[in-house]
């Protein structure tokens, strides 16, 4: 019998060959499994680090959680909060709000309505005509500790619904968030130019019309631009609000993307240094969990367009009433009745009377 024939019929040789291949494959998989375990262990450690950082950041920006009998169950009850973008680049004493938005959130329908309030909108405060951005700045200068509740009281009366909470973000923080998220893509509709040579402000806006990718400083210029001192067309509060909503919507989309996981640490750093709120930390966690999966298509943006009657923007009463109505209706939505009318049951959430402590005469 030939060697070839012996090999074919030798059961011992045919059995040994696969075992050698199996051992070889096992040896190749060992380092791969080790690497995977290390990666998983590292991911677990990173996740634990981020969770601790997240908790630490919330405690830094939020109000202390306590045994507050009036705490709102935000996971089930609609709320309204006031978001102010604060320009604190000067002497730190003016704190005029460059951006103001009233936002109603509904956890049942996972939807939101955002009303941009023009900074120059005429209001009546303590019997005098003032601009909308005067309210928080005045309250802060008079009494820092009462600035949040007094500002909420004012806008609760003005909007006809309880403003449950308030959030301020320094515009420097906005700039940093845009940079962390890789910038925004916008279509600049006109040339924008404004130069301020003062040491306190130092604003230097110079944007060209057309499709642009903007970093943090340029995005801040884009949403703030109003006046020009170098020959370009000026903007107004209505157009500024539209640009602010455009950028906010894009940033919201970036925050929901998969790539955000690598940037969470940097975002938390920015948030901790630039955001303040009177939402208790435990409630803030519930809010984030309740709305983290909200779809952009379920966020309605409303911008108010008024008449410029120097030095104010005067909003037509009908437009203001429609904006108030939209915020109220958002609080009333349910799965069974996603499009209620104001004839429906009183909005759920906090008792509407609870926040109606007047801070002055309202226009």
From TrEMBL:
- Keywords in alphabetical order: Membrane, Transmembrane, Transmembrane helix
Q: Is-annotated flag, keyword Transmembrane?
A: yes
Listed name of the protein: LCP family protein
Name the NCBIfam families for this protein: lytR_cpsA_psr
Starting at the broadest rank, the lineage of the source organism is:
Bacteria, Bacillati, Bacillota, Bacilli, Bacillales
Q: Determine if Magnesium is one of this entry's keywords.
A: no
Q: Where is the composition biased (Basic and acidic residues)?
A: 1-17
Q: Which family does it belong to?
A: Belongs to the LytR/CpsA/Psr (LCP) family.
What PANTHER family has UniProt attached to this entry?
POLYISOPRENYL-TEICHOIC ACID--PEPTIDOGLYCAN TEICHOIC ACID TRANSFERASE TAGU
UniProt domain Cell envelope-related transcriptional attenuator: residue ranges: 96-256
Membrane-spanning segments: 29-52
Which residue stretches does the UniProt record annotate as biased composition, category Polar residues?
Answer: 336-363
Q: Where is this region: Disordered?
A: 1-23, 331-363
């Amino acid at each position: 019998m030939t060697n070839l024939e012996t090999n074919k019929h030798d059961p011992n040789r045919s059995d040994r060959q696969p075992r050698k291949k199996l051992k070889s494959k096992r040896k190749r998989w060992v380092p791969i499994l080790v690497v995977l375990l290390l990666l998983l262990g590292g991911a677990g450690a990173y996740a634990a680090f981020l969770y601790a950082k997240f908790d630490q950041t919330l405690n830094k920006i939020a109000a202390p959680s306590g045994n507050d009998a009036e705490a709102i169950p935000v996971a089930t009850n609609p709320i309204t909060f006031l978001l102010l973008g604060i320009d604190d680049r000067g002497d730190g004493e003016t704190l005029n709000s460059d951006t103001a938005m009233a936002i109603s959130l509904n956890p049942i329908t996972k939807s939101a309505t955002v009303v941009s309030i023009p900074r120059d909108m005429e209001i009546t405060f303590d019997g005098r005509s003032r601009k909308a951005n005067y309210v928080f700045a005045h309250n802060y200068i008079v009494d820092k500790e009462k600035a949040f509740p007094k500002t909420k009281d004012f806008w609760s009366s003005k909007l006809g619904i309880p403003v449950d909470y308030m959030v301020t973000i320094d515009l420097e923080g906005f700039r940093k968030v845009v940079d962390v998220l890789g910038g925004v893509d916008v279509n600049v509709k006109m040339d924008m130019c404004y130069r301020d040579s003062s040491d306190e402000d130092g604003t230097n806006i110079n944007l060209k019309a057309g499709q642009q990718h903007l970093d943090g400083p340029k995005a801040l210029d884009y949403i703030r631009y109003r006046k020009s001192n170098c020959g370009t067309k000026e903007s107004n509060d209505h157009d500024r609000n539209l640009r602010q909503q455009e950028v906010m919507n894009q940033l919201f989309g970036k925050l929901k993307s998969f790539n955000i996981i690598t940037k969470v640490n940097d975002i938390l750093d920015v948030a901790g240094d630039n955001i303040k709120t009177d939402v208790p930390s435990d409630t803030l966690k519930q809010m984030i969990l309740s709305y983290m999966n909200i779809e952009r298509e379920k966020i309605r943006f409303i911008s108010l367009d008024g008449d410029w009657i120097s030095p104010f923007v005067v909003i037509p009463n009908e437009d203001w009433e429609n904006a108030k109505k939209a915020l109220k209706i958002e609080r009333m939505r349910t799965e069974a009745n996603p499009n209620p009318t104001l004839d429906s049951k009183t909005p759920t959430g906090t008792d509407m009377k609870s926040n109606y402590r007047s801070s002055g005469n309202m226009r």
